[in-house]
Specification:
Layout (H helix, E strand, L loop, with lengths): L20 E3 L9 H18 L13 E3 L34 H33 L12 H32 L18 H29 L1
Antiparallel strand pairs: 1-2
Helix pairs in contact: 1-4
C-alpha cells in the first residue's frame, strides 16, 4: 500500500483508487549536464514542498505524492519549468506564495493566449486563401458583401496589430539611437519598452527565485539539526 508523503494528506492507494500516486523524481545523470541540473533542482523542490524534516535520501525511491496536490492531476514534464505542477502545488497544508492557485491560473491563461493567437492566425490565413482562390467566397448566399465585409474587418484588425508592433519596434529603435531616451530623471538607465515575452520572462524569473528560496530554507533547516 502506498501512502501520500504530504503532511496531513490521508490518501492511500489501497483505499483511494481514484487517486494516482507519483514517485519523488530522481536525478537524471546520463542525459547530459542540463538535464542533470534541472532534474536535481526539481527533486530539491519536491523535497522542500513535502516539508518532512525526517525524510532521508535513502527513502526517496519509496516516497510518493498523490494527484490531489497537482492542479492538472499529475506532475509537469521536466523541461516545462514555468508550469506550477513542476512540483506538488495544491493542498500542502501551508502557503508559500508560488505554487498557489493564482500561479496555476496565470500559467493556464498564458497557455490559452498562445493557443488563441495561433488559432486566430490559422483561421485568417485559411480565409485569405479561400478568397484568393474563389472570389465568389467574398459574397454570401444572396450575393451581398457580408462575408467580404467580415473578411475586410479581419484584415483591418491584422493591419492594426501589425502597426502596433511596428510602433513598439520604432520606440525600441529610438531608445537604441538616443541613449538619453533610456534614462530617467536621475540619469539612471531604464528599459522603456516591455513586450509580452518580457513580462512572461520576468514572472518566470520571479517564480524561480521564490522556489530557490524555498530550497535554501529547507537546506538551512536540515543543517541546524
Amino acid at each position: 500500500m502506498v501512502i501520500c508523503a504530504i503532511v496531513g494528506c490521508v490518501n492511500r492507494s489501497g483505499r483511494d483508487k481514484e487517486k494516482s500516486f507519483f514517485r519523488l523524481p530522481t536525478v537524471l545523470t546520463h542525459q547530459g549536464p542540463q538535464t542533470q541540473e534541472l532534474s536535481k533542482k526539481r527533486q530539491e523542490l519536491w523535497v522542500a514542498r513535502i516539508r518532512r524534516g525526517n525524510l532521508k535520501t535513502e527513502q526517496y525511491p519509496n516516497t510518493r505524492v498523490c494527484s490531489a496536490h497537482f492542479a492538472g492531476g499529475s506532475p509537469a514534464r521536466l523541461f516545462d519549468v514555468s508550469n506550477p505542477d513542476l512540483a506538488p502545488t495544491l493542498n500542502l497544508g501551508y502557503s508559500f506564495g508560488h505554487g498557489d492557485e493564482g500561479s496555476t491560473e496565470r500559467y493556464e491563461r498564458r497557455m490559452a493566449r498562445k493557443r488563441g493567437h495561433a488559432e486566430t492566425e490559422t483561421a485568417a490565413t485559411s480565409d485569405a486563401l479561400i478568397v484568393e482562390d474563389n472570389p465568389a467566397a467574398a459574397k454570401n448566399d444572396d450575393g451581398d458583401e457580408g462575408s467580404k465585409e467580415r473578411y475586410e474587418r479581419r484584415m483591418a484588425r491584422k493591419r492594426g496589430h501589425a502597426e502596433t508592433e511596428t510602433a513598439a519596434t520604432s520606440d525600441a529603435l529610438i531608445v537604441e539611437d538616443n541613449p538619453a531616451a533610456a534614462k530617467n530623471d536621475d540619469g539612471v538607465a531604464v528599459q522603456t519598452v516591455l513586450h509580452l515575452n518580457d513580462l512572461t520572462t520576468i514572472e518566470s524569473e520571479a517564480m524561480k527565485i521564490k522556489d530557490e528560496n524555498i530550497v535554501l530554507k529547507a537546506k538551512v533547516q536540515n543543517a541546524k539539526k
